[in-house]
Design brief:
Helix content of chain A: 55-70%
Largest sheet of chain A: 2 strands, antiparallel
Distance between the termini of chain A: 7 Å
Low-confidence stretches of chain A: 1-7, 445-462, 468-507
Mean pLDDT of chain A: 85
Strand content of chain A: under 5%
CATH superfamily of chain B: Molybdopterin biosynthesis MoaE subunit
Number of helices of chain B: 4
CATH class of one domain in chain A: Mainly Alpha
Strand order of the largest sheet of chain A: 1-2
Chains: A mainly alpha (746), B alpha+beta (149), C mainly beta (81)
Structural class of chain B: alpha+beta
Structural class of chain A: mainly alpha
Helix content of chain B: 25-40%
Strand content of chain B: 35-45%
Number of strands of chain B: 9
CATH class of chain B: Alpha Beta
Largest sheet of chain B: 5 strands, antiparallel
Oligomer: heterotrimer
Order of helices and strands of chain B: EHEEEHEEEHEEH
Shape of chain A: flat
Mean pLDDT of chain B: 93
Chain lengths: 746, 149, 81
């Protein structure tokens, strides 16, 4: 809620009055919402009625009152909350009262919390709901009590509190409280620390791990010593938890102990958890006997993003050339790209095209060349763009794109190569190659509507040379239904290439197979065969994917020199290339490049293309200030496709045109409504507020959260409307108005 | 065998008798004639006349195509269609469609079909001339939709 | 760059711009591209978006390609009868 709102006492009072009226007169649903809204106002003038409704017969209302009282700090709330904590039988409500007491800083409730931490407190007449065989709410209350005792640790009787927590912890019939209890004990200073030391001695590995995790939240030296002790624990999971906690607190001692640990996993974890390690430390880690640790050191170098010219990464890599460690070598190369030690460029240039170089290492080299930007980077990357392997091509183009964002001769040369790639000059199209029909831009597809029309014998398809692709003669009428197997497509190229696909046996009742089963099956020779799933992208020929990626990369460079090539590519018949090019043109426009030369091709796609192309083109057109575009925008704001319409509405603010936004806010389609609402919220309050209120009510208030966010920008004036709705005779209006008010307060 | 379809675009005054005579047939017990005329009011404005515009070549093709379709659906009908091209005063005849058949149902239905299809597909446009001196080309059916069906 | 010349005849609502228009486009342009050019030449007249281009015999589809000079007609939404 805006500050201006809170300061307007008159509005606050009127709003409070309406909410109090609802609270007094209406059903539980509206009462709950009214209570939430009153809490959001955080007005002490409303305390009396809220306290009154701590006795409301409906438990949901009482719970909401408890939550509301978390937001208003006043001493007068402590007594009634404490009373409810004892007398309200509902466990969920008790948890909320504890939270409210914590918010009040009510340390006087510590005694009751101690009781609840260790038992149900029946001797203290604490009321509980009768329960049958269901979940016992006391556990939730116990957890809440222990947590709050920890919050109050500095101010209460520590011994008493610790004793109560230990009773709960050691209850043989109780639930597992170790996580919450240890986190609370850590806050009890030395007494808590001593308790944890005792517990450490007798606890199982899992419980010691809980202690190690909890110590991450401690601040005392004692807790730091305890962590150091945990680093000597025989169980690796305890030590790993201690490393994480030590890293959270940036304790050098933990680092020192961890990096000398017997387990490579722990040593590797130290490198990944601690930040900003110095060269000496990293150098040592790079000499570790275990590859896992060395890789972790490389990852630390990469994530740190610092130049480290003195690191002996090159020497290390040269030593590795005789060993078969492509994974480590790839990591070292990645680290070299960031650290930029002396000799890195020469080394990478030498091995990138070497016949003995492993594929993964080659890829790492190509990526590194983009960062190192050495004298040979560009020619090496340029030749890799035409490689027969798709990943190689993509890595090369990506690196050229990186270089192109910089300055100097390399950047200019990269731009030229990317331009050639976009135009299709870098990788020639093979003779007699035919495009995949699914990727041809079909301008006659009725936007947004599905067609049965592929059987239409009159349909003519043309390839990029203008030759007719033979269409089936006459309609296809078949009574035979051919069941198609659903082919699950991977989400990305990397996902597809790297994923292994276990062939699931074709039976109705699928069996879950885990790793232990696989081992057994392998012993018996019955293990299912692993098959790599090939991505559909992997089948795309070089002369196409290079163009597509070059177009996308070109957009990211922010270089206007690529505009001409992108315009030509946007006119291609390959749909994905068009999409990539149009996106790229929009990216260039976003950084201030004048894209007026692209107007024609963008208009073409905006007005005649498929919806997926059309909306991209409209987005790009929004950067061109011309009367033609503004007229087209008006037209497209009435398009039959929701996505196209919404994009046109969004860019309409760049032109001197008036759309009927109030009607569009009530449009049947969601994207259109949302675009219109976002735009209308930028107008004056007298236009915006009624339109946004109508928007809020559409589809039973599906947009109320967004409406609340947009209404928030209209300060005090919106509350007159809200008050009117809250006073309405229609329950639906009151409920949605309450929900909007609550959303506006969040 | 004499023709059973006449489809034309004309700048001459449309002749109702000619249409009737063309479709009349001893074996047909029903003749349905639709005559479209220029009226004097459109959306509250007084109309003085209409100018018709048409793409001659395509219009004739489309008229013929529509008549063939009608005849294919309502077998045994004879069809006369003529559309005016040029300026017409109030009361002037813009279009005539005459259909004959053995029984009345086919005549009614075929005639209806033809006029509705013409409105959607024929490359013909009309410009109304109003009392206040203004003229306006009327909105219509986009051939974009017809083309992609 | 090779170009072809198009003569576009106007009908219906386009007659306010005259009898027609001639202009050049690159050889191999699609009908969709030609419409975009026409949109520009007619200063954003959005009637173009609802219209089709046709030759003497048939209405052309947006992905049809022209490789030589042509005489076409622009046909706005129809309202015969």
């Amino acid at each position: 809620m805006s500050e201006l709102m809170i300061k307007d006492d008159n509005n606050n009072m009127k709003l409070s009055d309406s909410l109090k009226k609802i609270l007094s007169e209406n059903n539980e649903v509206e009462q709950c919402l009214a209570v939430q809204a009153l809490g959001g106002l955080a007005d002490k003038g409303n305390l009396a009625i809220l306290i009154k409704h701590l006795r409301n017969p409906d438990e949901d209302v009482r719970c909401d009152v408890g939550k509301a009282l978390c937001l208003i700090k006043d001493e007068s709330l402590i007594a009634p909350l404490l009373e409810n904590l004892i007398q309200d039988p509902i466990g969920e409500a008790k948890v909320i009262y504890i939270a409210a007491l914590e918010a009040q800083g009510a340390i006087q409730c510590a005694d009751i919390l101690c009781v609840l931490a260790s038992g149900r407190g029946e001797e203290e007449d604490i009321a509980w709901e009768e329960y049958g065989t269901g979940w016992d709410d006391w556990l939730d209350v116990q957890i809440a009590a222990i947590k709050t005792l920890g919050v109050f640790a500095e101010q209460i009787d520590r011994k008493k509190a610790i004793k109560a927590i230990l009773v709960g912890l050691n209850d043989p019939e109780g639930q597992d409280l170790w996580a919450i209890a240890t986190r609370a004990l850590v806050k009890f200073g030395d007494e808590g620390g001593d308790t944890l030391i005792d517990l450490m001695r007798q606890a199982s590995a899992l419980k010691r791990k809980s202690i190690a995790i909890a110590l991450g939240e401690g601040q005392s030296e004692q807790s730091a010593s305890l962590l150091a002790a945990a680093m000597q624990d025989p169980d690796i999971n305890v030590r790993k938890a201690a490393v994480k906690s030590g890293a959270k607190r940036n304790l050098k001692e933990i680092y020192t102990l961890g990096i000398e640990d017997a387990s490579a996993d722990v040593r590797a974890m130290v490198l990944s958890e601690f930040n900003d390690l110095d060269d000496e430390v990293l150098e040592k880690a790079l000499d570790d006997l275990q590859e896992k640790v060395q890789i972790s050191a490389c990852e630390a170098i990469i994530s740190n993003k610092k130049l480290r010219p003195k690191l002996k990464l090159v020497k290390k890599s040269e030593q590795l050339l005789r060993k078969n460690s492509p994974k480590l070598l790839s990591s070292l190369i990645g680290a070299m790209a960031v650290a930029k030690p002396k000799g890195a460029s020469d080394f990478i240039e030498d091995i990138v095209n070497h016949s003995a170089t492993d594929f993964a290492v080659r890829l790492a080299c190509l990526r590194a060349l983009g960062d190192l930007n050495s004298s040979k980077s560009v020619p090496l990357l340029s030749s890799a763009c035409a490689d027969e392997n798709q990943e190689t091509r993509l890595a090369a183009i990506g690196s050229l794109g990186k270089i192109a964002t910089g300055k100097g001769a390399n950047a200019e040369k990269s731009i030229e190569i990317i331009s050639s790639a976009i135009l299709g000059d870098l990788v020639a199209m093979p003779k007699d190659w035919q495009p995949d029909e699914d990727n041809i831009v079909d301008f006659d597809k009725h936007k947004g509507a599905k067609q049965d029309g592929d059987e239409d014998s009159r349909k003519i398809r043309l390839d990029r040379e203008g030759n007719i692709i033979e269409a089936p003669l006459g309609p296809i009428n078949s009574d035979i239904e051919i069941e198609e197997k659903e082919v699950l497509e991977p989400l990305s190229t990397l996902d597809a290439i790297m994923a292994a696909n276990v062939e699931v046996p074709a039976c109705d009742n699928a069996i879950q197979i885990d790793e232990a089963d696989i081992e057994f099956l392998e012993m018996t020779g019955s293990a299912p065969k692993k098959r790599k799933r090939q991505s559909p992208m992997a089948k795309i020929p070089a002369h196409i994917d290079v163009r597509r990626l070059a177009a996308l990369v070109g957009g990211q460079t922010g270089r206007g020199e690529l505009l001409e090539a992108l315009i030509k590519a946007a006119a291609d018949s390959d749909k994905e290339l068009c999409e990539a090019s149009v996106e790229a043109i929009a990216c260039l426009a976003k950084v201030g490049i004048d894209i007026s030369d692209a107007q024609r091709v963008l208009l073409r796609h905006a007005t005649t293309g498929e919806a997926s192309l059309s909306f991209r083109a409209i987005r790009a057109l929004g950067y061109i200030n011309s009367s033609i575009v503004s007229k087209v925008v008006v037209k497209l704001s009435n398009d039959e496709n929701d996505l196209v319409r919404s994009e046109a509405i969004k860019i309409s603010k760049n032109y001197d045109i008036e759309l009927d936004l109030a009607s569009l806010c009530k449009n049947g389609a969601r994207k259109t409504r949302i675009a219109a609402a976002e735009l209308v919220s930028e107008l004056s309050s007298d236009k915006a507020i009624p339109a946004l209120c109508a928007f809020a009510f559409v589809e039973d208030g599906v947009h109320k959260k967004l409406a609340a966010k947009l209404l928030n920008t209209h300060e005090a004036k919106v509350y007159d409307v809200m008050i009117e709705l809250l006073n309405s005779d229609e329950p639906q209006k009151r409920i949605i108005a309450l929900e909007i008010l609550i959303a506006m307060q969040q | 065998m004499s023709a059973t379809i006449h489809a034309s675009l004309t700048s001459d005054k449309i002749n109702i008798q000619g249409a009737y005579d063309f479709v009349a047939d001893d074996a047909h017990g029903a003749i349905d004639v639709f005559v479209g005329t220029v009226r004097n009011l459109h959306e509250g404005q007084n109309v003085l006349g209409i100018t018709y515009d048409a793409h001659e070549g395509l219009a004739k093709n489309v008229f013929t195509q529509i008549c063939l379709e009608a005849q294919s659906r309502w077998q045994g009908t004879k069809i006369y269609l003529s559309h005016y091209n040029g300026e017409l005063d109030i009361g002037g005849i813009s279009i005539i469609i005459a259909v004959s058949s053995a029984h009345r149902a086919n005549s009614f239905e075929a005639c209806r079909y033809i006029i509705e299809e013409i409105k959607k597909r024929a490359p013909v446009w009309k410009q109304e001339h109003y009392e206040n001196g203004r003229s306006e080309w009327l909105p219509g059916h986009s051939l974009n939709e017809a083309n992609s069906e | 760059m090779n170009e072809i010349t198009l003569n576009i005849k106007f009908f219906g609502g386009f007659r306010k711009f005259g009898e027609g228009l001639s202009f050049a486009v690159p050889t191999g342009s699609t009908i969709a591209t030609i419409k975009a050019v026409l949109l520009e030449k007619l200063n954003g007249e959005t009637l173009v978006l609802d219209s089709v281009l046709a030759n003497d015999n048939e209405i052309l589809r947006d992905d049809d390609i022209l490789n030589s000079d042509a005489s076409l007609s622009i046909l706005p939404p129809v309202c015969g009868g």
